[in-house]
Design brief:
The protein is an all-alpha fold. It is built from ten helices and no strands.
Length: 187
């Protein structure tokens, strides 16, 4: 992992050369956690600033616009219950689809961290509309329900993730955790 991370072109472009020494797994993991936290914070700031700049007449409704504009328009349509129209706008635009996943997942994580579990689930489900087989989204939904102490929904959500990817190790671990913590249900 350390070698792959250190030699990744995207990593090098973003952070420059970094060398890890063999046996320093904890240091490498701490470093990766910090990178993820920084990325989450940057995405949150980007999401906040771009939401503040959205104003009528800014071109965000133009289906031929940028991937971000398409993604935002599609998300608005899903929120209004017009999922078919949202899919039509996106077509096969992989960049816009990836943007939706990134925007919703980041917002959902921020809402979960803030204790706004229902809003977190709503964000993850928006992304799930476009990425129904993304085990990570199901995992994040399960985490929000877990923190809400809704054991049944947490279990149901992670089982959906495991259905999408049966060898999803983090999902298996979370399922065991949920089942160990869930209060016994009367028979």
């Amino acid at each position: 992992l350390q070698q792959e991370l250190g030699s990744s072109q995207a990593f090098l472009d973003q952070f420059g050369p970094v060398s890890f020494r063999d046996g320093e797994v904890r240091t490498a993991l701490d470093f990766v956690r910090q990178l993820i936290q920084i990325h989450d914070e940057e995405m949150s700031e980007s999401l906040t600033s771009s939401q503040e700049s959205d104003a009528p007449g800014d071109g965000a409704g133009d289906a031929s616009g940028t991937a971000e504009e398409k993604a935002r328009e599609a998300l608005d349509l899903v929120g209004e219950g017009s999922g078919a129209r949202a899919r039509e706008i996106l077509g096969q635009d992989e960049e816009a689809l990836a943007m939706i996943l990134q925007l919703c997942n980041t917002a959902g994580i921020e809402y979960r961290k803030a204790g706004l579990f229902d809003r977190a689930v709503a964000e993850f489900r928006k992304a799930l509309f476009f990425h129904p087989h993304d085990e990570g989204l199901h995992y994040n939904i399960a985490r929000a329900f877990l923190e809400k102490k809704d054991w049944k929904e947490a279990e149901r959500s992670i089982l959906e993730g495991l259905k999408a990817k049966p060898d999803f190790q983090e999902g298996k671990t979370l399922l065991k955790y949920i089942r160990a913590l869930a209060p016994a249900t009367p028979t």
